[in-house]
Design a protein that fits this description.
The chain is mainly α. It is built from 4 helices and no strands.
Length: 92
C-alpha cells in the first residue's frame, strides 16, 4: 500500500511540474521564439542545430532566456520549465 501511494505521489508531482512548466513556457517563451523563427515558436526545440545537447545545457539555456526576458523566475520555476521542455521535446 505504501509503495502504491509513493508511486502515485511521484506521478502526480511529475505531472504538476510539467504543467507548471508548460504554463510558464507558453506565457513567457513562445512569443519571443515565434519572432525568432518567423512562425511557430515551438520549432526552435526540434531544429537540427538546437543549442542544448544535454540536460545541463538545457537548464543553462532556460536560465539564459529567463534572464534575457526578465521573467524573474525562481529556481523552482526554471526547473519546472526545464523539466517541461525535456519531457516535451528533448528526452534526456
Amino acid at each position: 500500500m505504501k509503495q502504491a501511494l509513493l508511486i502515485f505521489l511521484l506521478i502526480t508531482s511529475h505531472t504538476i511540474l510539467a504543467n507548471d512548466g508548460k504554463t510558464l513556457h507558453e506565457s513567457h517563451c513562445v512569443e519571443c521564439h515565434s519572432r525568432m523563427t518567423g512562425g511557430d515558436g515551438h520549432v526552435i526545440y526540434t531544429r537540427d542545430d538546437r543549442i542544448a545537447k544535454n540536460m545541463s545545457e538545457l537548464q543553462a539555456r532556460v536560465v539564459y532566456c529567463a534572464q534575457g526576458s526578465n521573467t524573474n523566475w525562481s529556481k523552482s520555476e526554471i526547473n519546472n520549465v526545464t523539466h517541461y521542455l525535456n519531457e516535451q521535446y528533448y528526452h534526456y
